[in-house]
Amino acid sequence: MATKLVGQNYSTPDLIAKVTGKAKYSEDHRVDGMLFCKILSSPMPHARVRRLDTSKAMGMPGVKAILTADDMPGAAAGATLGENVQSSAQAERGLTNEPLYQGEPILAIAATSELEAAEAIEAIEIDFEPLPFVVDPLDTLRPGSPNARTQGNVWVRPPAPPPAQGRGEAGRGGRGGAGGGPPAPQVQVLKWTDDDFKNAGEGQLPLGKATDEWSYGNLEEGFKKADLTLDETFVTQSTGHQPLETRTAMAYWQNGKLYLHGSTQSTVQTVASVARWSGVPANQVHIISEYTGGGFGSKIPGSIFMAIPALLSKKANAPVMMRITREEEHFIGRARPGVFARMKVGFRKDGRITAVDMYAICDNGPYDAQGDARTAGTTISLAYQPEAMRWRGLTVLTNTPPKVSQRAPGGMQGVGIMEPILTKAAKKLGIDQVEMHKINAPAGKAPFGPTLPTGKQAYVTSAFVREALDKGRELFKWEEKKAAYSGKKQGTKARGIGVAVSPFSGGSVGFDGMLIIKPDGRVQFQTGIGNLGTESAFDVHRVAAEMLDVPWEQCDIVFGNTTKNLPWTCVSAGSQTAHAMTRAGHASATDAIKKLQEIAAKTRGGNPESYKVAGGKVSGPGGSMTFAQAAQKAIELGGKYDGHEVPEELNNFTKTSATALAGQGLMGVGKDAYPRDGQSQSYVIGYAAVEVDTEVGTIKVLDYTAIGDVGRILNPRNLKGQLFGGSMLGLGHALTQRWAYDTHYGLALARRFHHNRPPTILDAPLEFTGDAVDLADPETPVGIRGVGEPPVGAAYGAIMNAIADALGDEIFKRSPVSADIIITSLENGGKRTHEALTAHI
Amino acid sequence: MEDNKMSEETPQSVSRRNFIKGVIAAGAVASSSAYLFRTTTMHGQSAAGPVGAVERLLTLNVNGQDRRIDVMPQETLAMVLRYKLGLTGTKIGCDRAECGACTVLIDDVPHYSCSYLAHRARGKKVVTIEGLADPATGKLSPVQQGVVDEQGFQCAFCMPGFVMATTGYLKTNPNPTRQELAHGISGNLCRCQDYDKILTAMMKGAEYARKG
User: Fold this and answer.
1) Mean per-residue pLDDT for A441-446?
2) Could you read off the pLDDT of A10-43 as tens digits, one per residue?
3) Is A165 exposed, middle or buried (0-12, 13-18, 19+ CB in 10 A)?
4) pLDDT for A91
5) Is residue A24 within 8 Å of residue A311, measured between CB atoms?
6) What percent of chain B has pLDDT over 70?
7) Of A325, A533, A729, which is closest to B156 when you measure between CB atoms?
8) What are the CB-based long-range contacts (under 8 Å, 24+) for A640-647?
9) A75 FRET partner, CA 20 to 30 A, in A245, A544, A642, B200?
10) Residue A326 touches chain B, beta carbons under 8 Å
11) Of A24, A566, A538, A83, nearest to A292 (Cα)?
């Protein structure tokens, strides 16, 4: 394939609107008669509404409607809610009479102004019965301790029927779902024994009863072969996603249809979720979301609270704007679950990992079971290829804000849990950190995750991790820095270097692509990809544009509004889009080329194969036709050429859109049905150099290099942006971001940016290098994999390794590695003083 | 220490200090009710606000144009720009002077408009992201052009704030190093954390501005 577009930098067509302030995010929309709503949320971590009287509030000036939990649709049986859980009476519903976390919405009031709505909230008469609560997952495992929900404290998955062949459940922790997946988990009570806690050893996670387990290889044999065995406990923190744009949404109804302006990670897939949350048929829902101010996993797809303005506007018979404040966003804006892990790891003398025995607890929050602890395990099995591994785990409910996938969910935690152990072993065995990673690196069709019923493990499409490690070592000047920095102290400054390998799923399959060649010769791409800044809403179409050999300036992209008839698209999450939608784009361009050839042959004579598409024309023995002429002809021919007939295998969503657009030009439409052997995984290698001030505990990242093994490079500048942004999120987890709780009342103390501080421009590395090995993935037609997730774990792991290199291996056993951890541990002779097993400190 | 000195010396950080003083002086008015507003007449409470309240009818000079508006004493500039003047390019990310998404220029100095009472802007010149491009030709300002050419930013919700902060900073230091510019705009938060590309775009903007 030529590379006129793919692999080249360009500026996305939405930039002018963004830079002139014309781009409209949710809160920027205005509709005549628009009301504003305010939410009454729970002041307690767990309570029951004992008495509620809204009559006084309803009589307040300007108040138009009040929405309570009784107005919310029941969870439809069998529907999939969130990422992992089938709907049940235990599912989140948007408003509730039994709040399970502080800040959970109880009711909402729509009034002519926000001030009136806020005043009416004050007039609500409500009485809560406080219920037992827990904010720390280990607390609820002690005998006689409280449970986060009246039904229990852990998610338990009933035994699964044997899964269908080839549908490996590695990767994302065996999602439940309506499609015949494993049975939906249930909330049950589980307590460990006093002996479990007593026998654990100081600072070690107790190994009480687990609810979930998988393994492969011979664990016992593996540990027998080991020359060195380490047994370590590590705690990763819970962190809010904190997108800069909160989940503000505005809704109105017209002719019986709901129009919802919201912030989401997928335009088209938000239709079904809003329909479900609001109890409205999907064909009566339209989503308008041209610009989304960041999601990072917290808006997949959209937010359950979109149901509030949707149903309030129906009740009030007027448009409703729901502005979500930063503090509300802290509670309802979703978070990454903290993971508590105990790792027993066996190493051979040469550094090869012979066995991993992992026990991990997911601090799940009160709702949907998250796969983070499990994915942390599969990530470790892939990144370090242990010869044998057992994973055991628990998904523990807490009365903390609901958890959901955050950029590299579970993957980041897995890398951060394992990397300090790898580095410690490297030091003990006298092996260089990079060599340690190389000997354990995945290569080719590397296996990972549990042994499946087939007797084999799932495996990846490709892995070029050693190549990426080598490239990074050179660009970072590892050897030079090792000599200059490693363990070197100068006055109060100690320097160290670290490297980490971070894999994450790099693409999904099976979506639809759609384009129309218009009678004016322009090519119009229809896309349902959410425009949340990843640029993939635009980047992916450059594959099809290049196949059609049409200048980019001649292309238009229709996005962000389901009234404009968009095709079925993946959610922009889990680094899926660049992979999934270049495949779908390839399918639609292949279809368009075939139709151009057929039209040319019909019009100019000869057989279709003898015509070539190039230079904005289709040319062959009978002469040539411009795209404009071919489009005109397609409309005349009708049928499949202009979208009046579409392939049966397309998603119904695409079919409806194609039917609506039929007759506008030559339609290229197709489903990604390309074969794929293995699961697509991407990898990023992080190299970090840090300087620690041993007097005050501050850490500066001096130099950072991120090297991707992410398939072919689609857009170099965007690649570097994704590598950098993801690395900064990892840096935040390594150094600054955490929650804090008043454990007596179960109330959050860290609720705003300045409490739970994300990195600023001054925390950024002084030097940054971002690049990729640029090797095509063999299992996808364009060779492109995703890049968004894996940089997070790479920076998280590499920076923590660099701190350990500077100060020693025993300084910290949790993240973030804050200044207080460093100075108190140094005071204590380099051994940690921080609490080992307490959450949110 | 060296770093702190640099940021202390930048003029807008001085003005931010002044603005914090202003917020303290305004007391409760600027705290919990700061994000509340109304578009209709007041019911059941005095619209005049505290004793000695300012005149509600106000003339604001925004993007070179005098605008006559009805503003209550507690309303912030950010809410007035967005809800009374239709200038939604100014974003509200935190409404409490943490993120800088709402940064506008007031007499050429960057301010967080979420924490700046509209009445304080009386007699001053306010410039928002909508006021940067040439109104006649639509030609982008140098900093805006830098963003377009370098594909600065990802989701871009923070972009208006960064562009305004940079535009203001460059008036005091037209030829900054990357490091100096980073300090100059460090009051702005990007959650895509695309700081490397942002800084490249802003430096390109500075270069365009110098070339004129």
Assistant:
1) 98
2) 999 999 999 999 999 999 999 999 999 999 999 9
3) exposed
4) 83
5) no
6) 75
7) A533
8) A640/A595, A641/A595, A641/A598, A641/A599, A641/A666, A641/A667, A642/A666, A642/A667, A643/A516, A643/A667, A643/A669, A647/A671
9) A245
10) yes
11) A24
- A296 and chain B: CB distance < 8 Å anywhere? yes
Joined tokens for residue A639: 């049928």
Is-contact A116 A60, C-beta < 8 A? yes
Q: Which of A383, A361, A350, A589 is nearest to A468 (CA)?
A: A383
Rounded Cα distance, A249 and A269, in Å? 16
∠ CA A755-A759-A765 to the nearest 5 degrees? 155
Contact assessment for residue A51 and residue A128, using Cβ atoms and an 8 Å cutoff: no
Q: What's the mean pLDDT when you consider all of chain A?
A: 94
CB A335 within 8 A of CB A241: yes
Q: Which of A800, A808, A577 is nearest to A686 (CA)?
A: A800
Nearest CA-CA distance, residue B43 and chain A, Å: 6
Judged on CB neighbours under 10 Å (0-12, 13-18, 19+), A435 is: middle
Q: Are A555 and A541 in contact (CB under 8 A)?
A: yes
| CA distance to partner chain A, nearest, from residue B161 (Å) | 10
- Residues of A (1-40) whose Cβ lies below 8 Å from B: 9-12, 15-16, 18-25, 27-28, 30
Query: Among partner residues A25, A60, A764, which is closest to B195 by beta-carbon distance?
Result: A764
Backbone angles phi, psi at B63, to 5 degrees: 50, 40
Give the C-alpha distances (Å, rounded to integers) separating A657 from A264, A648, A814, B114. Answer: 20, 14, 50, 42
* Three-class SS state of A366: coil
A residues 52..71 contacting B (CB < 8 A): 60-62
Structure tokens at B82: 């967005």
Lowest mean pLDDT among A28-32, A108-112, A362-366, B31-35: B31-35
- In whole angstroms, what is the distance from residue A730 CA to residue A412 CA? 8
User: Quick one: pLDDT at residue B15?
Assistant: 47
| A274 phi and psi angles, rounded to 5 deg | -65, -40
Residue A754: list chain B partners with CB under 8 A: 98
Residues 240-269 of A with CB under 8 A from B: 242-246
- What confidence category does residue B37 fall into, taking pLDDT thresholds of 50, 70 and 90? very low
Residues 19-58 of B with CB under 8 A from A: 33, 35-40, 43-45
Residues near A430 by Cβ (< 8 Å), separated by ≥ 6?
none
* Shortest distance, CA B156 to any CA of chain A (angstroms): 7
If one counts every other C-beta atom within 10 angstroms of the C-beta of residue B135, the result is 12
Q: What is A107-172 written as a DSSP string?
A: EEEEESSHHHHHHHHHT-EEEEEE----SSTTGGGSTT---SBTTBSEEEPPPPPPPPTT---TTT
Residue from the list B89, B191, B195 with its beta carbon closest to the beta carbon of A761: B195
Residue A554 has what DSSP assignment? G
The predicted pLDDT at position A649 comes to: 97
CA distances from A442 to A346, A466, A699, B70 (A): 18, 8, 31, 65
Closest by CA position to A475, among listed A683, A684, A705:
A705
Helix or strand (DSSP H, E) at A448: strand A447-451
Q: Where are the alpha helices (DSSP H) in A317-394?
A: 326-332, 372-384
Long-range contacts of B3-8 (CB under 8 A, 24+ apart): B3/A762, B3/B183, B6/B179, B6/B180, B6/B183, B7/B183, B7/B186
CB A45 within 8 A of CB A747: yes
Residues of B in contact with A732 (CB under 8 A): 193
Report the alpha-carbon distance of residue A229 to residue A219 in Å, rounded: 13
Long-range CB contacts (within 8 A, 24+) of A660-663: A660/A565, A661/A514, A661/A516, A661/A526, A661/A565, A663/A635, A663/A638
